[in-house]
């Protein structure tokens, strides 16, 4: 690693990823999805990488950083008593009404093709509250007469895990939104009160991001799960930017 990369200030970006955007910077030849380069096209973002992908048809909180150790910490956290602080929380719209048996299966862990999932925190959400809180659903989300919403918090990241979990118990996923990751959540209104409290809440509209410059000390505290009150205030007061989709004409 070069001296320049070793001394580069650590940047952490929180991005409210829209539906239909790949969690990568290069375009695949077999699809027409937008990519992160359509939002982060300034040269200063050339070294940032995604910490925990969302598939193109999922929405919500995406973390990006230029620090490899922080990326590793966010995607593969050390097994400590603080693990719950690195949970990822999703709001999930399901095709059908979730019953207690299905919810308990999700909580206990289900057997997928690549192994059994770890126990999850699963809570029912009030549909009217969700409709009043969330942004409008993308036009191409399938419409169903009877749907329900769950909040699901997990500590691992198997490929398309939430969608596979709900399908396993007979509840196809219609819409998937990550509302919290690690210490951060999109809004206090989107936070699941039954989960470990998040330190920093941002009201990010779809396509908006906040860029945070971490000092060496703050980075160490972040990785040790010991962010103090002064650091929480610093993180909360960062300026929110609007990522404008570049005209691809």
From TrEMBL:
Family listed = Belongs to the pseudouridine synthase RsuA family.
Q: What class of enzyme is it?
A: isomerase
Q: Which GO terms describe its biological process?
A: pseudouridine synthesis; rRNA processing
| Isomerase listed as a keyword | yes
- Lipid biosynthesis as a keyword of this entry, yes or no, is no
Q: Which UniProt keywords apply?
A: Isomerase
EC number assigned by the record: 5.4.99.-
Specify the protein name. Answer: Pseudouridine synthase
Gene Ontology MF terms in the entry: catalytic activity, acting on RNA; pseudouridine synthase activity; RNA binding
Which N-terminal residues, if any, form the signal peptide?
none
What highest taxon heads this organism's lineage? Bacteria
Which residues are in the Pseudouridine synthase RsuA/RluA-like domain? 12-168
């Amino acid at each position: 690693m070069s001296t320049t990369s070793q001394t580069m200030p650590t940047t952490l970006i929180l991005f409210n990823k829209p539906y239909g955007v790949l969690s990568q910077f290069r375009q695949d030849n077999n699809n027409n999805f937008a990519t992160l380069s359509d939002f982060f096209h300034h040269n200063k973002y050339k070294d940032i990488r995604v910490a925990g992908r969302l598939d193109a048809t999922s929405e919500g909180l995406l973390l990006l950083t230029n620090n490899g150790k922080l990326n590793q910490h966010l995607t593969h956290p050390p097994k400590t008593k603080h693990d719950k602080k690195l949970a990822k929380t999703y709001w999930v719209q399901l095709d059908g009404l979730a019953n207690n048996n299905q919810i308990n299966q999700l909580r206990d862990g289900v057997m997928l093709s690549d192994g059994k999932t770890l126990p999850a925190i699963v809570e029912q959400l009030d549909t009217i509250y969700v409709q009043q809180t969330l942004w409008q659903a993308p036009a191409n989300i399938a419409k169903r007469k009877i749907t329900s919403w769950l909040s699901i918090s997990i500590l691992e990241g198997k490929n398309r895990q939430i969608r596979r979990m709900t399908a396993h118990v007979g509840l196809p996923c219609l819409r998937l939104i990550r509302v919290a990751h690690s210490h951060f959540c999109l809004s206090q209104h989107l936070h699941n009160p039954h989960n470990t409290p998040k330190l920093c809440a941002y009201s990010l509209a779809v396509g908006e991001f906040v860029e945070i410059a971490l000092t060496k000390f703050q980075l160490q505290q972040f990785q040790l799960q010991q962010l103090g009150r002064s650091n929480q205030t610093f993180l909360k007061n960062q300026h929110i930017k609007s990522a404008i989709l570049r005209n691809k004409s």
